[in-house]
Amino acid sequence: MPSPPGQDSPEQQKQTRNNHTHNKVYSGSVFMLITRLSIKSIGLISSIFLARLLTPEDFGIVAITIAIYAFIELFGALALGTALIQQKDNTPDDYNSAWTFNVLFGFAAAICLALIAPLVASYYADPRLQNVLYVLAFVSLLSGFHNIGVINFQRDLNFRKELQLQLVPKVISFVITLSLAFILRNYWALVLGVLCNQLVVTTYSFIMHPHRPRICFSSFNKLFKFSRWLLLNNVVYFINDKVSQLIVGKALSPTALGYLSLGKEIGQLPTSHIAIPINKATFPVYSRFQDNPVELKKAYLNTVALTASLTIPSSIGIAMVAPLLVSVLLGEQWVSMIPLLQLLALANMFFSITSNNSYIYLASGKPHISFFINFSRLAVFFALFIPLLEYNGLIGIGQARLGSTLLMVLIVQAIVIRFLKLPVRDLLVAFIRPVLAGLIMAIAVWAVQSSVQLSIALLQLLLETLSGVLSYGLVSLIIWHIQGYPEGFEHNIFSRLRLKNFPPRSGGPLP
């Protein structure tokens, strides 16, 4: 039966809803990018000040204890919030059961950390670690009480609330940590900063959301069926990320671990600033399209194009300007970190462009695929990490990261192509502009480094950065113009600017 005049058919209404949801990929990504950029910018500023006030050894001490803390925490890392987002229908018991588990695990983790603190201090022959772990035990206890209701900000695509939830506590803890660093001038500033941050985050979660959780166990089995694979994924992530740090702290020194810890923080900025917030924004969108392969495929291509357009130039830029970046912002005591930082930045580039793939499997209710991929990634990394650490020391860690990421990137992409039944050409189109523009950007920055040497290091750093930004942006727009203004990151930006003379695109409807 045809629709009445002036009224869209059910199919047209459905497509309108789908297009509106696709728009959430961009609008949600923008808000999550703002959130993450704001938080990480604060964190980066904090790290710069702290790197000048503290020593690499201070960072190494905290890195060891944080790795131990993460090891205990991963046994409760069922990502029940992710399960609540993936499920289409949730009951109050689902939320309360998730919160109950978090509270109980917080108590158990706190007890474990307190019990093993003397053993860890003895193993590393550093008594300072014992008291630090006692403080982190209290942090674990506080984290268990976090209000589970705030997960609805992501589930309902309310990214304005998510921005507020994450940004306000970060600003408060930034001020507290920096003040402590000026007063204490040692690793306790970092430790007490972690404690203050968790206290503020937990308190603010109850201010932001009206949900008041209560003790409940009825839905745990329901949630665990999905979350058990996320737990295994978290175990693999811990071994891949934190165990390598523990090995470095023991095999080399706390100072070497300090270099690795800060090098990873800077080298992974494109992932933590860009890829992760985009992933968080797109996961609820993928979940809505889990039964619609066509729209899921479209959302994925839009997402990888957006991620690649931002992370590729960022990673290449960090690797290119690393010598000046470290000496100008961090100081001469960190210059030994430069080669490691460059390797980690390039490794991060290849990882970030594939990091969104796992969310496709989670949204489709197949988290086991992510587990097997991450387990393979882990096996490849450690096959390279152990021998390279022995032969090349700290630099070997960066070589292992880059080598394992390069080996896995084609495998990871081949799996998602088969899973989505995605034409290879469509995926290549999503990557062609950022890849070509990124290569030309690298050449432009190298040309500036070779031909211009300013006497003031900060001005030289700004010049190299500006040359990279301008060359990448210009080349991206030229290639986009040659391609006929196809759908993607650039088209969405110009469309939202509402340019009157903006030319029509050559593809289908704008998502």
The percent range for strand residues is under 5%
Structural class: mainly alpha
Distance between the termini: 28 Å
Q: Secondary-structure element order, as H and E?
A: HHHHHHHHHHHHHHHHHHH
Please give the number of β-strands: 0
Backbone CA Rg = 24 Å
Shape: globular
Number of helical segments with 4 or more residues: 19
Poorly predicted sequence stretches spanning 5 or more consecutive residues:
12-16, 504-511
State mean pLDDT (0 to 100 scale).
Answer: 80
Helix content: over 70%
Strand count, sense and barrel status of the largest sheet are: none
Tell me what you see in this structure.
The protein is mainly α. The protein has a domain at 52-248. The protein is 80% helix and 0% strand. The chain contains 19 helices and no strands. It is globular, with a radius of gyration of 24 Å.
